């Protein structure tokens, strides 16, 4: 996703030039205000992003008479179009609105000051002078009824997607790009990563024999049959999801303990099996444990990482066994494909260990069920499904417009496997706080200030039980949506009834798309959704001694 290297921005006084300039500056554009044609002749030498904001009225200071100003503007417009990769943005607004803005801000146009012209007459002359730019503009934005913040966000989205569009409504723009979702966002890193989960699941299916071949049967049988799950953040959540998936979904109960990497020093792992997950493989707390010999007492250390030559990768290749994730390096802050692949990998590792402990049948069943996952994901990545997700995203964005705090809840399998990660992704992608409510809605109070809730329909929960949960939510919360195979007469995203492992991944991927669209509906730029400044990850060594 590359921004245009050169932009020409024009519009009459009061149309929002200053507002849009602020957005361009925040996107990294150098602002250049050419008065004479010679300024544009240096365009080929400009290597950075730059935006021209022609100071047409300043040409009056250069001796160009008012009656020649139109001709001068046409020449300036013609030269601007010669600039490499130029995109012209024309801002417009209704004359009465422009006049009102001028009068309210006590700002006079250059013409009204120097030629003592009424606001409307001065603005009409401005629009006539700027007409050549309007005729060639790739982006036309009517700011008559747009707030400054929506004007900025509209320009940001249009430039990032590099599409010609004429609009006076941010909502209309979002509807337009979502109506052809996969073409509009094909170059957006986050969407590319979400889409790559189909390839990741196929790669997982092809790895079925790796777990049988690489897990040391003798060392596992010599262990004390205790399994410690070690990680931080989404990586630790992925391990925990795998445990609950096996327990609730497939009836495989193992003697597992969830240990944050920073707490490992308080735990005796002698002769135990340790499963360590870190996408980067260089998480500060895990590196600290490796340096301190924290994993050395284990009978077997099993590493799951996307970087084979990281600290975790090197340690496990030498002292235990490593299972690389083999997914793309994720650019946005929100991990998407690595989370799904981590869950699948950890599930296979733990199921294979369970098989060696005498609990047979589950390992092969996991892979048998997952054979349908690529096809199910392909169905999620269809325009038909996106249209439904977009409708629910719009509903939630409106419901959370004033209070960006809601609930996400489920019962059964998804309650323990998904809610924590789903809550984290909502913060990362949509900038909303969805408080997880686990297992049941019938214990504990609901916050009366919360306006929205997402209910995830679980394959292990009866329809009657789900209906009771949803009825209770509807009783207290104005906006409730459901995700699953049953439609309860409220905004709903369909997910087919399927096996536990498939249901978990389908819900996770669907929520990732939902949150992305909620971020768009809320007016966040693609940059803000993918690289939120205020949500930078903090990686520190353990503060505990």
UniProtKB/TrEMBL annotation:
Biological process (GO), any one: carbohydrate derivative metabolic process
Superkingdom, natural source: Bacteria
Protein keywords: Aminotransferase, Transferase
Entry-linked InterPro entries: P-loop_NTPase, RapZ-like_N, SIS_dom_sf
Pfam families per the UniProt record, alphabetical: RapZ-like_N
GO MF term set: carbohydrate derivative binding; transaminase activity
Domain RapZ-like N-terminal: from-to ranges: 8-149
Keyword Magnesium found: no
SUPFAM superfamilies xrefs: P-loop containing nucleoside triphosphate hydrolases, SIS domain
Protein name, per record: Glucosamine--fructose-6-phosphate aminotransferase [isomerizing]
Lineage: Bacteria, Candidatus Moduliflexota, Candidatus Vecturitrichia, Candidatus Vecturitrichales, Candidatus Vecturitrichaceae
């Amino acid at each position: 996703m590359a921004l245009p290297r050169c932009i020409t921005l024009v519009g009459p006084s009061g149309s929002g030039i200053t507002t849009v300039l602020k957005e361009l500056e925040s996107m990294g554009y150098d602002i250049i205000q050419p008065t004479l044609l010679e300024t544009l002749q240096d365009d080929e030498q400009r290597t950075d992003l730059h935006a021209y904001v022609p100071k047409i009225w300043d040409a009056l200071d250069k001796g160009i008479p008012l009656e020649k100003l139109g001709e001068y503007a046409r020449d300036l417009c013609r030269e601007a179009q010669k600039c490499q990769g130029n995109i012209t943005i024309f801002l417009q607004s209704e004359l009465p609105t422009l006049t009102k803005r001028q009068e309210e801000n006590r700002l006079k146009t250059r013409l009204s000051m120097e030629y003592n012209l009424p606001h409307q007459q001065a603005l009409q002359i401005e629009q006539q002078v700027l007409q050549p730019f309007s005729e060639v503009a790739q982006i036309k934005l009517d700011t008559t009824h747009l707030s400054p913040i929506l004007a900025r966000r509209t320009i940001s989205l249009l430039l990032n997607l590099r599409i010609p569009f004429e609009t006076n409504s941010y909502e209309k723009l979002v509807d337009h790009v979502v109506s052809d979702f996969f073409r509009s966002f094909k170059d957006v890193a986050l969407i590319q990563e979400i889409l790559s989960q189909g390839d990741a699941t196929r790669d997982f299916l092809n790895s079925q024999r790796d777990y049988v071949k690489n897990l040391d049967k003798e060392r596992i049988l010599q262990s004390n049959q205790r399994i410690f799950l070690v990680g931080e953040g989404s990586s630790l959540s992925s391990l925990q999801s795998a445990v609950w998936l096996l327990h609730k979904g497939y009836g495989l109960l193992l003697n597992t303990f969830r240990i944050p990497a920073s707490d490992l020093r308080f735990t005796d792992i002698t002769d135990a099996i340790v499963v360590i997950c870190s996408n980067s493989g260089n998480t500060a707390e895990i590196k600290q444990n490796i340096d301190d010999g924290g994993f050395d007492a284990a009978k077997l250390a099993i590493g799951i990482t996307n970087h084979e030559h990281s600290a975790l990768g090197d340690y496990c290749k030498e002292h235990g066994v490593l299972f690389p994730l083999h997914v793309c390096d994720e650019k946005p802050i929100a991990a998407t494909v690595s989370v799904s692949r981590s869950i699948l990998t950890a599930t296979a590792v733990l199921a294979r260990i369970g098989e060696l402990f005498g609990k047979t049948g589950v390992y092969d069943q996991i892979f048998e069920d997952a054979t349908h996952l690529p096809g199910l994901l392909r169905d999620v990545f269809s325009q038909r499904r996106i249209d439904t997700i977009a409708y629910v995203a719009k509903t939630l964005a409106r419901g959370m417009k004033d209070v960006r705090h809601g609930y996400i809840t489920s019962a059964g399998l998804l309650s323990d496997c998904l809610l924590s990660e789903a809550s984290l992704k909502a913060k990362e992608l949509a900038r909303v706080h969805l408080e997880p409510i686990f297992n049941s809605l019938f214990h504990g109070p609901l916050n009366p200030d919360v306006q929205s809730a997402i209910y995830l329909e679980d394959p292990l929960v009866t329809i009657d039980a789900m209906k009771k949960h949803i009825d209770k939510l509807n009783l207290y919360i104005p906006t409730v949506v459901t995700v699953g195979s049953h439609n309860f007469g409220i905004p709903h995203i369909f997910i087919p009834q399927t096996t536990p492992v498939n249901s978990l991944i389908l819900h996770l991927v669907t929520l990732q798309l939902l949150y992305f669209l909620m971020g768009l509906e809320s007016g966040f730029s693609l940059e803000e959704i993918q690289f939120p400044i205020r949500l930078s990850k903090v990686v520190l060594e353990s503060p505990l001694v």
